[in-house]
Automatic annotation (TrEMBL), chain A:
Region forming the signal peptide: 1-29
Keywords from the UniProt entry: Signal, Transport
Pfam families in the cross-refs: SBP_bac_8 (PF13416)
Protein name: Probable sugar-binding periplasmic protein
Protein source organism: Marinomonas phaeophyticola
Family indicated by similarity: Belongs to the bacterial solute-binding protein 1 family.
InterPro entries, sorted: Bact_solute-bd_prot1, SBP, SBP_1_CS
UniProt key word Transcription: no
UniProtKB/TrEMBL annotation, chain B:
Positions of the ABC transmembrane type-1 domain: 77-298
Origin species: Marinomonas phaeophyticola
Family indicated by similarity: Belongs to the binding-protein-dependent transport system permease family.
Protein name: Sugar ABC transporter permease
Membrane topology: Multi-pass membrane protein
Compartments where located: Cell membrane
Membrane-spanning residues: 12-37, 81-103, 115-135, 166-191, 212-234, 279-302
Claim: Metal-binding is one of the keywords in the record: no
InterPro entries, per database record: ABC_transporter_permease, MetI-like, MetI-like_sf
Keywords per UniProt: Cell membrane, Membrane, Transmembrane, Transmembrane helix, Transport
Amino acid sequence: MSNAHSNLSVSRYAIATAVLLSSASMINAAGTLNIESWRSDDANIWSDVIIPAFNKSHPDTTVYFTPTPPTQYNSALQAKLQAGTAGDLITCRPFDTSLTLFTSGYLDSLNDLKGLTEFSDVAKSAWVTDDGKDQFCLPMASVIHGFIYNKEIFKELNLSVPATRDEFFSVLKTIKSESRYSPLAMGTADQWESATMGFQNIGPNYWKGEAGRKALLEGKAKLTDEAYVNTWKELAEWKPYLGRGFEAQKYSDSQNLFTLGRAAIYPAGSWDIQTFNNQADFEFGAFPPPVTKSGDTCYISDHTDIGIGINANSPNKAAAAELLNWMASQEFAELFANAVPGFFPLSNHKIAIKDPVAQEFISWRDSCESTIRNSYQILSRGTPNLENQLWNVSAQVINGTMTPEAAAQETQNGLEQWYAPQQ
Amino acid sequence: MTQPNHPDEKKPFPWHLVIFLAPALLIYVTFSVYPLLDTLFLSLFNTQDGNSTFVGLQNFITLITDDNWSHAFWNALLNNFMFFAIHMVLQNPIGLLLAVLLSSPKLRLSGTYRTLIFMPTMLSVVIIGFVWQLLLSPIWGISEEFLYNIGLGHYFDAWLGKEGSALITLSFISVWQFVGIPMMLIYATLLNIPDDIVDAGTVDGANPLQTFWYIKLPLILPTIAMVSILTFVANFNAFELIYAVKGALAGPNFSTDLMGTFFYRTFFGFQLQQGSASMGAAVATLMFLIILVGVMLFLFFVQRRIQRFQF
């Protein structure tokens, strides 16, 4: 009994000491910033490149990049914010996930941040309230869709890069009839590629980018309109040019088919550049989604993917704002773009990117109009979920088990069930 | 810790029972009973938009009558019954057959076979899913060439990617993985049958088929019944294989969607779909009820009629 008692008092002292120690370390923590992120792949880049560069101009602030694995990020962050242990800076997922954090009071409004003036409205659209009044995250990076092609196969078959849709399909036809390569490296097993690399990739050319996306949001356009049906019609035409058994082909299969040199064209997201740089031993290039006839304005999906905001409970908001302002600078944009090719800074600065393919992708921002994926803002809030529907119907259209018209009808019906402007 | 002071009290309260039971009971209640009750409770609320309100059975009504939910729900339930049926028709009879073959005294290397057949059960579902995807892959897989070599090449297809065959293929993979469990359980029971009974039958002139049919099978029926219950519970809780191979959207066109994947999407959300804890709890409660009813029906109609034999 007396033993137990002494144990208890020892543990009581231990707790008291721990409390003291932790409060002491909190006092020491002034001047340090912790960044919550899901980009664990970028941890080295932050510690070796970005943070040292920041410390050159801000030597008195210590920054720690503390990532969580991507699949656990949302729930882990939620728990940390509720417990009050989250870092000072929060890496923001686009749209509703972060909007919920802001409306729950976990993120600060950034309206007064001067760095925000460096960004366009499209870039900021992913982290702004529905009424456009409050900006809660600083845009950090986007990914661009397009097609990556194997330059050696193109040379071997004497093909030129297609600019129009007709050229695109004649290139596909030539590859199919004159060689044993798969013309297009894409499968429908994972479904998301059909929607993301297919529908959202070639679609903006049909629905005229932002104009079409806004019209859909305002209820002025329907998914049954010609623009959307035609997008699915083109996807349906991809079917004969996909590899054999594409219904069971997964994302990694497609990547491997391309990097092994067995497929000529890969419907891509710019994030694939890093993988291909590491794995492909041939030269590859990129072209934007082909337009109807040459001279047409081209539209690209320049999708806002990563933002960064300030934890409303951070003890160190001034330093955090300082870091955000620096992240809006030309210096950060250039460092980041070159450290992670395929993720493009969203600020308006002109930057030099060394990776040739990444450079090609970002050059489309000048020649084409940018838009974001049309299902991401507001439209995927209800039940049925538009994004999930797009995955399902796009994969089915490519599989040939659903007509483009039926796909349009199903998604439009889904939207009409809960989205007032479409009713 | 107080000692009883009344001289007339003969037996002190059996504190030692409480103390010995407490750790297990505490763990069981904290990690099993409490979450279960909490889930049942949560399913009566609506937790959307941050605050929760009591809505009674509304979640269940939505789940069964609202087109957006009911379509997915019935589809998942139907697929789940299909998944279960394939296991009952294939896994358990094959397990029985293997057990009978293994228990044959004439079979050499039976230990090796037993280990090899049981091996997949011990592997992670993720590995099984990955290996079978590779085997069946139209791009890298060996199954196409194998079929060509035995002259069945034109039957090959991207089975895992077609709406009509994906669920059946996944069921076969699951059967292949778990066939070791009925095999081991039945095998153990078969070994327990005393030789005297079999010898007596043989002396009376029963051939091996009759010995199996009239002597061994009745004796292993309770085990087969138990295996069926285990299969039922495991199949209606199945999730990992589908998630590993087809992802949470269980394509193509939800043809491989089971209750488990449907629950996952509802509770945790998916991609841009926000999860709903209360709706997810409603799905979980229905899963629990389906399993409960299934097991109870089984106990009432089957288990009670099975005779047990004492040797």
